[in-house]
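FAQ: What does a ligand-bound record look like?

Like this one, built around nicotinamide-adenine-dinucleotide:
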Amino acid sequence: MAVISHWLNNKSYPGTRVDTAPVTNPATGAVTGQVALASVEDARAVIDAAAAAFPAWRDTSLAKRSSIVFKFRELLNARKGELAEIITAEHGKVVSDALGEVSRGQEVVEFACGMPHLLKGGMTENASTNIDVSSIRQPVGPVGIISPFNFPAMVPMWFFPIAIAAGNTVVLKPSEKDPTAAIWMAELWAEAGLPAGVFNVLQGDKTAVDELLTNPAIKAISFVGSTPIAQYVYATGTAHGKRVQALGGAKNHAIVLPDADLDLAADAMVNAGFGSAGERCMAISALVAVGDIADELVAKIKERTDTLKIGDGTQDSDMGPLVTKVHRDKVASYIDAGEQDGATIVVDGRTVQANGGADGFWLGPTLIDHVTTDMSVYTDEIFGPVLSVIRVESYDEALELVNSSQFGNGTAIFTNDGGAARRFQNEVEVGMVGINVPIPVPMAYYSFGGWKNSLFGDSHAHGTEGVHFFTRGKVVTTRWLDPSHGGLNLGFPQNN
Ligand code: NAD
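The answer part, i.e. the structure of the complex:
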């Protein structure tokens, strides 16, 4: 059986192989490989490679660095179908959705191709008499990227194109559930001409993460995953002197106002609730129906949900399986709890007939009505194809619900009232807001990130905040001496 290894110095690195974990195809339940779980020794070897490569990469011209990133973009664009198939085989999402993920990651690669422009500093001539001042931004050093299972290509690409183009070296620690995409991207970097040691992959679990968080050679950490781990990563990394951006979990609400186009809203709820089996940090999991539209809206969502084809992501399916059996069972247990708590199960995914392997990790789309805020199906991030409907009387009540959440990743409002939408964008305490757009993922040149327990740190991913995160500012004050200069002056420098 294939062992999925680490990657350093542009080649596969077996490491000590003291421990491995199974990788499964969620559509069949079959174990398809074993991923190496790094020992501390393995982690240090990979980090050392990134540290050794940093000085030369930092000093490689921007023109050369950008041309390699551009080459990576060309290869990715030409061969993204291969990457999508790898994602589907280990994650389970349907191939078209996997392709969408790769394309959204590619947008960040394209953004990073413009790094020479993004890194331009400022210059002030004659700030004081015969004194010029300039600002420059420099790479921070070797950086660690720790990514979740749900976007094995896109989430790493939120960070590494920018980090690399800006002159840093990278250690990517992908999720142990779907580790092959990272190796495929590493091979692509090598083909694009990236020097050895600039992009490295460390496979593993907590041992690997802890070494990244504490090893002094690593200067910055970009993390994406669940809130408790994000909190831990932020606390540990910053305590070890690193800058850290740690993106956490979510529970995204969509508010539907009484004047909304209910057909548009129903389409959006199905797409955003059940796409990628709800395993998206921007999925809508709480639908807040305002006023007397709830019965009609729920009926429209049910009608659409009943048409969805659940099955193997490589076949003609709308939605694939969940990532692991453990996760599937956990999500199903939330549906059980909602039922016991008195909510109405309108569409029950527990009884799904899927077009896939008998041992696949199947759970169909589930629509639950009359959910109240004390139920675990509402309070917890479930991360599965479960859409809860909460009925409220007014906009104010709906807003209060969203703003009371511990999470603040994404949200959306559906309305034809511009004034209400404008009020919502102003009042809601969430980092990414959609107006008649259910999954408002920002473009690469804006920054991605939530508020509250959805992000720890002060930098969002990609866009100019990403460039800022992966660089340090320096200000240079310059005077070229001429014969008239001279004299001692111990006072604080003043301008003249
Ligand atoms: P996770 O927190 O279990 O794992 C994320 C990463 O942390 C993985 O690489 C994993 O190996 C590592 N990890 C797990 N346990 C650890 C521990 N105890 N110590 C150190 N490292 C550990 O998350 P997941 O299940 O892979 O991904 C789903 C979660 O990610 C959801 O909560 C989802 O909302 C979140 N997510 C958030 C965003 C965002 O932008 N905010 C995007 C995607 C996913």
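Follow-up question: can I read anything off the structure? Yes, for example: The CA atoms of residues 366 and 386 lie 5 Å apart.
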